[in-house]
C-alpha cells in the first residue's frame, strides 16, 4: 500500500469517528434537552395541580348547593300542593256551609208570613 492510501484511510477513519462522535453527542444533547423539558412540564403540572384541586372542590361545593336547592324546591312544591289541597277542601266545606246557610234563610223566608222580599245575607254580594 501506498503511504497516500494509508493516510486517506486514516483521515477517513478519523472523519467517520468524528461524525459518529458528533452524532452521539447531538443525540445525547437532544435527549438531555428533552429530559429537562419534560421535568419543567412536570413541575408546572405539579404547580397547577393545587389550582385544579381547588376548582374541583368548588365545582363539588356548587353541585352540593344545587342539590340542596333542588331538595328545598321539592319540599316547597310538596308544601304548596298540600296547602292547595287543604284550600280546596276548606273551600268545599265553605261552599257546603254556604249552601246550608242559604237553605236555612230560604226556609225561614218560606215559613215567615211577613217576608215579602228576600233579605240580603251578610257577606253575600246582592248581584249573585
From TrEMBL:
Keywords: Membrane, Transmembrane, Transmembrane helix. Residues 34-110 have a biased composition (Basic and acidic residues). Residues 30-128 are annotated as: Disordered. The chain crosses the membrane at residues 6-26. This is Colicin import membrane protein. It comes from Rhodococcus maanshanensis.
Amino acid at each position: 500500500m501506498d503511504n497516500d492510501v494509508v493516510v486517506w484511510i486514516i483521515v477517513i477513519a478519523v472523519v467517520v469517528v468524528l461524525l459518529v462522535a458528533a452524532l452521539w453527542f447531538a443525540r445525547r444533547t437532544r435527549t438531555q434537552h428533552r429530559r429537562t423539558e419534560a421535568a419543567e412540564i412536570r413541575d408546572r403540572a405539579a404547580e397547577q395541580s393545587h389550582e385544579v384541586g381547588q376548582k374541583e372542590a368548588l365545582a363539588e361545593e356548587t353541585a352540593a348547593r344545587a342539590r340542596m336547592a333542588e331538595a328545598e324546591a321539592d319540599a316547597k312544591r310538596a308544601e304548596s300542593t298540600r296547602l292547595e289541597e287543604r284550600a280546596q277542601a276548606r273551600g268545599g266545606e265553605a261552599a257546603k256551609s254556604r249552601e246550608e246557610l242559604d237553605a236555612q234563610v230560604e226556609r225561614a223566608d218560606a215559613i215567615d208570613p211577613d217576608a215579602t222580599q228576600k233579605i240580603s245575607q251578610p257577606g253575600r254580594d246582592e248581584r249573585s
